[in-house]
Amino acid sequence: MKSQWEEKWLEDIEFLRENLIEKHKNLFFNISKEEFDSRIDKLKSMIGDLDYEEMKVEISRVVASIGDAHTSVAFPANKYLPIKFYWFEDGIYIIRTSEAYKNLLFKKVIAIEDVSMDKILHELSEIISFENEYFFKAQSMKYMQVAEVLYGLLISDSMDNIKITTEHNTVKVKTVNIKELKYSDSELPLYARRPNENLWYEYLEDKEELYIKYNYCREEGNIKISTKIVEIIDFIEKNSTYKITIDLRNNLGGDSKLLEPLLCYIKNNPRINNKENLKVIIGRETFSSGLLNAYEFKFETNCVIWGEPSGGKPNCYGEILRFVLPNSKFSVSYSTRYYKLIDDDSTMSLYPDKTVYEKNDRSHSHTRDFSCELE
Description:
Blueprint: H1 4-23, H2 33-46, H3 52-64, E1 72-74, E2 83-88, E3 91-97, E4 109-112, E5 115-116, H4 117-125, H5 133-143, H6 147-152, E6 161-166, E7 170-174, E8 199-204, E9 209-214, H7 225-239, E10 244-247, H8 260-267, E11 278-282, H9 289-300, E12 304-307, E13 316-324, E14 331-339, E15 354-355
Parallel strand pairs: 9-10, 10-11, 11-12, 12-15
Antiparallel strand pairs: 1-14, 2-3, 4-5, 4-6, 6-7, 8-9, 13-14
InterPro entries: ClpP/crotonase-like_dom_sf
Organism: Clostridium sulfidigenes
């Protein structure tokens, strides 16, 4: 006889199956119905052997197998490593820490709980929804920070203290809750300085250039994006500033239409709209509506695009809605529309005109920012 706990998980899993099949625009574009049903049945058979954190991971594994970066599970996370990881060309490094773990700063990570980075990345690739390597590079660093994920994947047997091994030392790191997740005030590169503002700008006097950072395609409380765009245009007009950089490298999406007034102004201003003066930066977190905005600049202006290939795939499913599993309350996003931005469906990213990767320059304490060095 199944326990009440098992019955609730069975109800959630069946609810997941039925709603994804019913609501997703085209659930079986990448995985067959037989394979999907087989994964659902396997998960049901495992319920009695899994604890709560393992169930989170295994439900994510099923959803990730669909192969749609916009269709994913958002489950509650309560314990985090007070560490930010970044995947550079030569490996994974710690780029921010709380004050207590500053000795780990800028160190290359070799293992977590004696599990190699290669093994950890393979495990994460099974539970993260992504469509190209660049988005996986971005998302995996966030998942790796969550203690429940490391526990659910059987990488760590504790969610309170987790061992991090770098090329120089091994440290037991105490996890914290989201309210306690604070980092030391080390100097940050320009693009990372105001992460909680959806749209902001700064005039770089030494370059006589206006730098515009667009982090989210959504309104910011009572401050309208349209109001900020009016401010930006007013600044340009009053100061005769025609050299513009628009940074979309961390823009994961929202409503692509919000940026239209700025795009319209720029494309109709010939002093800005030329290859010498207009630059757009993209990267591994340029995704969804952030990617749509990048393509609008590519197609409608004379900009030069710099940075890394985008995390978003040009032709993809998107326009997400959500449903909530009845018992666990996990939120599941699913795609309701197919976007076709280019003719070639096999193209995995928007590739920049000039590829520039984030610099792992420890002599500069990770403060160098190529957006300040574009020529």
